Amino acid sequence: MQKLIFTLITTFSLVGCGLQVKSDIPEPDYAIKHNQFVSNNEPIPAGCFAQLMTNLNGDNTTAAVFIESANLRGCNAANYPYPGGDETLITYSIEKILPTHSYQLKVCERSTEGSMSGSCDNVLVKFTHLDYQLPNSTKQVLSVIKLGEW
């Protein structure tokens, strides 16, 4: 009961200040099937998550990756070239499901085809929609952001 009262007071206080929670932002549209992320009924390629690995993204200069198409193609498009090289060398696993569309992922890159050597990162990510500004509109694009490491 106290939680309900606190929530109501907080909500009315924010409304009184002119601040409102946007309810028109949709929940991120993805799923987990067979321990892999899926968007638009297609698996999200491991290369999308590899772009958030510290050693592959220039020491954490990449903070987010568009999964869906922002304008022409997104990371999950069949013809999207993986910028890190050979995507068949990349794997990821969902290590822990956290609240609010957040996950602990283990993302690995093998050195060469067939080799067991390589590197792995423990990446903390969150699925969200990011606004992408077009000339006459704004599109909400499914994205994965790097929150840190675990």
Write up what this structure looks like:
There is one protein chain. The protein has 150 residues and is mainly beta. It has helices spanning 2-16, 46-50, and strands at 31-33, 36-39, 42-43, 64-66, 90-98, 102-110, 118-133, 138-149. The strands form 2 sheets. It has a 5-stranded antiparallel β-sheet with strand order 4-8-7-6-5. A hairpin with a 3-residue loop joins strand 5 and strand 6 (102-110). The chain is globular. The two termini are 35 Å apart. Mean pLDDT is 80; it is low at 3-23.
What does the secondary structure layout of this molecule look like, with pairings?
Elements: H1 2-16, E1 31-33, E2 36-39, E3 42-43, H2 46-50, E4 64-66, E5 90-98, E6 102-110, E7 118-133, E8 138-149
Antiparallel strand pairs: 1-2, 2-3, 4-8, 5-6, 6-7, 7-8
SSE order, as H and E?
Answer: HEEEHEEEEE
Radius of gyration using CA atoms only: 18 Å
**Total count of strands:** 8
User: Class by helix and strand content?
Assistant: mainly beta
Distance between the termini: 35 Å
The number of helices is 2
Beta percentage is: 35-45%
The best one-word shape is: globular
The mean pLDDT is 80
Largest sheet: 5 strands, antiparallel
- Helix proportion range: 10-25%
Strand order of the largest sheet: 4-8-7-6-5
Unreliable spans are: 3-23
Q: Quick gist of this model?
A:
The chain is mainly β and about 150 residues long.
Features:
5-stranded antiparallel sheet; 3-stranded antiparallel sheet; mainly beta; disordered N terminus; 150 residues; single chain
